[in-house]
From TrEMBL:
It comes from Myxozyma melibiosi. Belongs to the FAD-binding monooxygenase family. This is FAD/NAD(P)-binding domain-containing protein. Signal peptide: none annotated. InterPro entries: FAD-binding_Monooxygenases, FAD/NAD-bd_sf, Flavin_mOase-like. It holds the Pfam family FMO-like. The keyword Protease does not apply.
Length: 534
């Protein structure tokens, strides 16, 4: 019977940045809140990402929750922390915010059903746990469904195989191993930097070069982080930039500058490190092919001068851009290119010689055979919408969310979906997700979610539903905006193009954090596009 199932005002799925943050604010406002979390602990993506070299590509304190109780009593040891430190950070978040006391861990939710009569969601997990809730908030991130390509004969391979996102908690020895690594996304780049120095031999199977940017890691001491007086201002300031950082595109076209000025500007972005060259470049980088070409030329020169072997350089940093710069996510690197200067570290261009099949001892491309005893699949995720594919979420009339999105992703505000009343999600489809620093996007979305739930309580509303018209208008705008950019020219996970058969469409909001934040604020003024019911 439904009444035997525990009831909460709010049920949150996932105890990562957004789940912890929403729990904190909603509980503060007097709501009963519960988190169901698949993992045995808090941390979200930083519980699962524990492959060698896993590290965040946003710098701290930008990559951090803006909750004073949390940041005032925390300091980092490096500008770009690794997964171990991020796990420690989440332990701290848990201790300070007491997340665990309101969380069911090891609870993998499989089903959620909207009940029109009671205006509640009923949520069921694999371990049999159930809950009913007025609001259902899915905070499951954009990269939780792994992708392994359907390689011919993969099961024949007799060596050890690991997908980067299912890395054994006990670790995997890379020392002295012969390693085959497929994939050169940010994961592949980070693993290469760890495997290169210790392996016997490393074959990196690259289909598309990663146009990596210099990280410029720096080590931080506690004393430099003792004064937190300016932090609140920093967290407000990060919302003023496209990517949710403290830097932003400059208000100039690339061709407004002379070649000399451009060279100086590009070099300054490289010297700054992080994503500056990506999202603090000339503002026409993603819209003007010439601006993009100029940026690529600079990047190509910088990367190729670090690679001694011209054959390797032609694969890793080709003269002709594989796609417009920045339309696939660049990774940050520390010594990626130098790895390939070692005689035992190879790059195999599988766009020129595709992987034909696996063998007992390795794999065969159309041109040759490669032997290794450890295979690492850094082949990514069914990103953004894929996170929802293993979850049966049924809204009004029993319609399933993943079915609705199979035809076309449709959302209102990148936060909710028509006919899925009282469902909201964070850091997912049609939000600034892939183009923003996670905690910045979450800061904006958390405010909206907490505000609407409070508003409804104050007005005795039991449900809200995004209108169909508002959803269509929002979705159409995303699809229209992307046609003005170079993004459709790349086969990227931003566009769903990394998964065979997946619909090609822009899965993210591309106008940046300030425009997104203003949009949410304007909706809050009169709840445009939202229908409330008692
Ligand atoms: P990504 O960025 O999706 O990278 C996956 C990599 O795997 C990428 O280089 C792909 O090449 C490669 N891949 C995928 N399928 C194949 C096949 N069939 N053959 C050869 N190579 C293949 O995943 P990551 O884990 O690195 O990063 C995901 C995001 O998580 C990251 O951007 C951060 O935001 C956090 P392709 O480029 O498609 O040619």
């Amino acid at each position: 019977m439904a009444s035997d199932i525990p009831y909460y005002d709010v049920l949150i799925l996932g105890a990562g940045f957004s789940g912890c943050s929403l729990l904190h604010y909603l509980r503060r406002d007097g709501f009963s809140v519960r988190i169901f979390e698949k993992a045995p602990t808090v941390g979200g993506t930083w519980y699962w990402n524990r492959y060698p070299g896993a590290r965040v590509d946003s710098d701290v304190p930008i990559y951090e929750l803006n909750i004073p109780e949390v940041y005032e009593s925390w300091s980092w040891s490096s500008r770009f922390p690794d997964w171990q430190e991020l796990r420690q950070y989440f332990k701290h978040v848990d201790k300070v915010l007491e997340v665990s006391k309101d969380t069911d861990f090891n609870t993998n939710v499989t089903d959620a059903v909207w009940d029109e009569a009671s205006q509640t969601w009923t949520v069921t997990a694999e371990n049999g746990k159930r809950a009913r809730a007025r609001f259902f908030l899915t905070c499951i991130g954009f990269a939780s469904k792994n992708f392994t390509p359907d390689f011919k004969g993969l099961s024949k391979f007799k060596g050890e195989v690991h997908h980067s996102n299912e890395w054994p908690e006990t670790g995997v020895n890379l020392e002295g191993r012969r390693i085959g690594l497929i994939g050169t996304g940010s994961t592949g780049v980070q693993i290469t930097q760890e495997a290169g120095p210790v392996c016997k031999e490393l074959f990196v199977f690259q289909r598309t070069p990663n146009l990596c940017l210099p990280m410029h890691q720096a080590y931080l001491d506690e004393s430099s982080q003792s004064d937190k007086a300016g932090y609140d201002a920093i967290y407000q300031k990060r919302l003023n930039s496209f990517g949710g950082f403290l830097f932003d595109f400059v208000k100039k076209k690339a061709t407004d500058d002379t070649p000399g000025q451009r060279e100086k500007f590009y070099q300054a972005l490289f010297d700054h490190g992080g994503f500056a060259f990506w999202v603090a470049n000339y503002y026409d980088l993603f819209t003007d092919p010439e601006s993009n070409r100029l940026a690529y030329e600079f990047w190509q020169r910088k990367a190729s001068e670090r690679i001694k072997d011209p054959k390797k350089a032609a694969i890793l940093a080709p003269k002709v851009a594989p796609h417009p710069f920045g339309t696939k996510r660049p990774s940050l690197e520390q010594n990626y290119y130098e790895q390939f200067n070692k005689p035992n570290v190879h790059v195999v261009d599988v766009s020129a010689e595709p992987i034909a099949e696996f063998t007992e001892k390795g794999l065969r491309t159309t041109d040759g055979e490669y032997e290794f005893d450890l295979l690492i699949l850094a082949t990514g995720f069914d990103a953004v919408t894929g996170s929802y594919k293993n979850l049966k979420i049924r809204g009004v009339g029993g319609v399933e969310l993943s079915e609705k999105w199979a035809k076309q992703t449709q959302t209102y505000l990148g936060l909710t979906v028509h006919d899925f009343p009282n469902l909201m999600y964070t850091y997912g489809p049609q939000a600034p997700t892939a183009f923003s620093n996670g905690p910045s996007c979450i800061q904006v979305q958390t405010k909206f979610i907490v505000d609407i739930i409070n508003y409804m309580r104050d007005h005795n509303y039991s449900s809200f539903n995004a209108t169909s018209d508002a959803e269509t208008e929002y979705t159409d705008e995303i699809n229209e905006e992307v046609t003005k950019t170079l993004f459709p020219l790349a086969k990227s996970w931003y566009m769903g193009a990394n998964i065979p058969g997946k619909k090609i469409e822009m899965l993210n909001y591309i106008k940046g954090i300030p425009a997104y934040s203003s949009l949410l604020d304007s909706v809050e003024e009169n709840w445009k596009g939202v229908a409330f019911a008692n």
